[in-house]
Amino acid sequence: MSNYQDEGLPGVDALQVEQRYSEERAKRLRPEGDSQFIDISHSADFQSFLEDPWVDPTKIKDAKTMFPNDRCQMLILGAGLGGLVYAVRMIEAGIQPQHIRLVDIAGGFGGTWYWNRYPGLSCDIESYCYLPLLEETGYIPKHRYSYGEEIHEYANIIAEKWGLSENAVFQTKAQKLVWDERTKEWAVELEQRRIGEPPQKLDIHVPFVVTVNGVLNWPKLPGIPGILDFQGDIFHPSRWNYSVTGGSPADQSLTKLQDKRVAIIGTGCTAVQIVPHLARWAKQLYVVQRTPASVDHREQRETDLGWFHKEVTISPGWQRERLRNFHQHFTTEEQPLNNLVGDAWTHGKAIVGICGNIHGPKTPDELPAYMRKLHALDLPRQTRIRQRVEEEVQDLKVAKSLQAWHPSWCKRPVLHDDYLSMFNRENVTLLDTEGHGPTRITTNSIVVGEQSYPVDLIVFATGYRAPFTGTPAEKANATIIGRDGISMTDVWARNGPSTQHAVLDHNFPNLFLSGPWQGANSPNYLFAVDTFAKHASYIFKEANEQSKGKPFAISPTAEAAEDWSMQVAMHSAPMAAIIGCTPSYLNVEGSLDQAPPEMQMIIARSGLWGSGIENFIDIIEAWRKEGSMQGIEVQV
């Protein structure tokens, strides 16, 4: 029986709830915003947190051997699932697999699923929607929500099927990209850092580059005094150390923790998955909370093969139709009668506040009424989730501390069946910091307020660099220089991007983007990347045919880019729901609220398509069907 049922709200005062939301938000607001965190990749003192525990040095090819004549036809920055999907779409558009190179600092395919192998890891989007290309591979996911190791293995299945397994350049990073207008190609500086060897630098030339660096790729730490003073074991979940905890990605018996005191800092999606495993094995577990997670039911189960063949793969195109149905439940008021997915997302109508809404406000004047409507939609769900805490957690004081007081659209919903009940265990202690976070860390303890808690291991489940800040250059930790010596970092900061349909910027020809700027997003971010990849590959194929074998440059005209930017701005009002939310990566730790007036238009024209991803797809598919490549310039 599903747990997703509307409930009455006797005794619930909606205005009091909204007031509580404001009070809880105020506890988290900090003047330093996103700078309260340590971006590990930019800090020399914390580089040990980035060491790769998974790499097999014997399998890392010398980068020089991967670029005959210092060239390739297409360079893809990122070898995660997004990079692989982009490669597949370009192969479908006519590029031979042997002419593609995927570059990644990791030691293998998978992206976030390469790095993250912590105990309990699984995807929060049902596998029949999340795993791409299921129809093409014929693969059947093992569970409703795939576990991390299966997703990592599936990345390798895709690479093998499309002939990409030997075309990745691992432990390698693009440092700088410079556009050459004369030759119509990119000059790219690469650096490979193989274990035990000095860095190796390469200069290559590439006609086409794709940036697919993902959203969860640069881990961060909280700026807590004393992190480097700690003498025990310490790591980020993206570099889980099984030599300390015992177990492995395949065997999550954390036997080495049986006499250890463990603290996990953070209570977001990652921590919620890890806590049950630490609780079962550690002598003592401290869960350090700044903001409670809004934990809904997951209802995990193995895939029933009979059901899968009879109910899911019923006709060609089934995965696209399932995803369309998935999106329609929180991007429009005209919801389908049949809910194919039936999960927490599709029963969370107010999630439309972060996903876009074709029926949303058109002007700022309509925002107050829209926000009242969102809160009314959301109140039954969040009330049910708060009631669930009291039903599952025996200690009423602990239960009250675990209740989330923010709307559904302010943070990514968390799904888990076991997290809350772990707080009934005698060896689990919640350290609720009332929005402040830990005070400091000593050589052997974590300090909350004035109370010190001795620990042997600290796990920093504190997330990643805010995924939608900066530019594709920042996502790659690279410098990108386009036409007329323009720096992407500088021009986007001044004016925002100048794209058409989010996949090509006027100032940076032959550089295909993967969003989300000036595009649309989905809770299934990988589907959004595939949307951009399909569009980009169509544009590439058409331009390639027009060029008749000559070198060419593709970009939107300045006029088309400006027109699209203004359309994005005019459709941005529904996305304003994030303003006033509890600080999180979605609103850059509250920084969006503090943007000066002169920045507001840049933010509006740089953001997401406010009418939702299915409406965005309708627009770009109609553009492709029209067939004239309107707004795209091909220079030979």
From TrEMBL:
Q: What InterPro entries does the entry give?
A: FAD-binding_Monooxygenases, FAD/NAD-bd_sf, Flavin_mOase-like
Q: List the cofactors.
A: FAD
Reply yes or no: does the keyword Nucleotide-binding apply. no
Family, according to the entry, reads as follows: Belongs to the FAD-binding monooxygenase family.
Q: What is a single molecular function from GO for this protein?
A: NADP binding
Organism annotation:
Pleomassaria siparia CBS 279.74
Which SUPFAM superfamilies does the record associate with it?
A: FAD/NAD(P)-binding domain (SSF51905)
Tell me which UniProt keywords the record has, alphabetically. Answer: FAD, Flavoprotein, Monooxygenase, NADP, Oxidoreductase
Q: Which Pfam families match?
A: FMO-like
Question: Where does the signal sequence lie?
Answer: none
Kindly provide the name given to this protein in its UniProt entry.
Flavin-binding monooxygenase-like family protein
